[in-house]
Amino acid sequence: MGIPDIRQLVTLEFEVFGHVQGLNLTKDTRDRCTKAGITGWVKNSKRGTIVGKMQGPKTEVDKMITWLSSEGSPGCQIERCELRNQSNLNRLDYKDFAIRF
């Protein structure tokens, strides 16, 4: 045991379900991730969901997952947020957080 390393880096993929497209969720996700020091990407999927990948400090990624799971942008009706391929990282694979098309 001991003090958790606040610099622990994690990576994960996410998909947000519900009424989430057309409500600035991709833009707000990018802006919040950039401010939190999280790198990766986000985009609208053809299935009507928002998908993406985040890499960054575990504490900040956890806060973003909470926001994507329950709050989101104004007007969003989030049903759920699924996470995949979660693991620890030694270094980030991305320089910034981008919106993909």
From TrEMBL:
PROSITE patterns per the UniProt record, alphabetical: ACYLPHOSPHATASE_3
Statement: the UniProt record of this protein carries the keyword Kinase: no
Entry keyword set: Hydrolase
Reactions catalysed according to its record: an acyl phosphate + H2O = a carboxylate + phosphate + H(+)
EC number: 3.6.1.7
Parts forming coiled coils: none
Keyword Hydrolase set for record: yes
InterPro entries the UniProt entry points to: Acylphosphatase (IPR020456), Acylphosphatase-like_dom (IPR001792), Acylphosphatase-like_dom_sf (IPR036046)
Molecular function GO labels: acylphosphatase activity
Acylphosphatase-like domain ranges (all copies): 11-101
Superkingdom assignment: Eukaryota
Pfam family, one: Acylphosphatase
Family stated for the protein in its record: Belongs to the acylphosphatase family.
Protein name stated in the entry: acylphosphatase
